[in-house]
Amino acid sequence: MHTVLREMKFIDDNVSIDSADVVKPPKTKKEQLVSNVPTPEDIAEQEKIFMPPDHLARRAIAFGSPGRTALDPDELKMLVNDAFRGEKYFIVVGKDEKNTRGLSARVRQWRRMRRAGISVEKGVSLDYYLDPQEQCYIVLHESANNLDILKSALALVIFRRKLVALDATMRQQKTSVDDPPPPFRTRDCQEILRETRIEASKVFPHLLRELTKKGWRPPLRSLLGRVSARADWKIQLVREKKHHPAS
User: Fold this and answer.
1) pLDDT tens across 39-50, in order?
2) How far apart are CA 213 and CA 40, in angstroms?
3) Which strands form 136-141's sheet, in the order they lie side by side?
4) In angstroms, rounded to a whole number, what is the distance separating the alpha carbons of residues 156 and 137?
5) Would you say 125 and 95 are in contact if contact means Cβ atoms under 8 Å apart?
6) Rounded CA gap, 56 and 139, in Å?
7) Within 13 Å, how many C-alpha atoms sit on residue 118's CB side?
């Protein structure tokens, strides 16, 4: 799945996990998001045969449990009953409070900066350099299937674009590295989370049609293999807007 999204320019390995870069802007926004779907043959030329995929470890980064960011009850209620109502996934925003080593965002950011030859300014916290795309991830419902997983990955791509734009706006309002923007929390991003679900729902059918057109078929097993970090909540029905006849 990661390789497909990367080839579709949903993911830029030089920036972060799922940053987007559209090569040829199509006519509509929906077409723009699904314009570069590769064929299975294209992917087969790059896939390893005997060794695990290079990006398999990122499964634990893009998917997690509500407890990773110490999600509070009000935030969880908003996600399940409002922002992602009716979906078998939701996106959580916040600093990783569980993984302080290895997979932590700070460690990954430090490694990327080291490879790029970027040094941390003296007296400046590494948190100032954290990529905002590192501060969000997907929580899957225990009954989520492959379509839900693919849709959630699409939603994460859309949301990370919005989060990058929000981070840039907040940084423009700061005048010093001594006063960095505070880490994002779910409660700070309610509006763009709602927008993300709506946009993902509109684009998803176009993505599925394009995947089918290019020769992709649903796998027999889960896209992610065994994923233990799932949660259970009551799936709420999506409220339909009532149209009142004009008097």
Assistant:
1) 888 877 877 667
2) 11
3) 89-93, 136-141, 230-231
4) 7
5) no
6) 17
7) 10
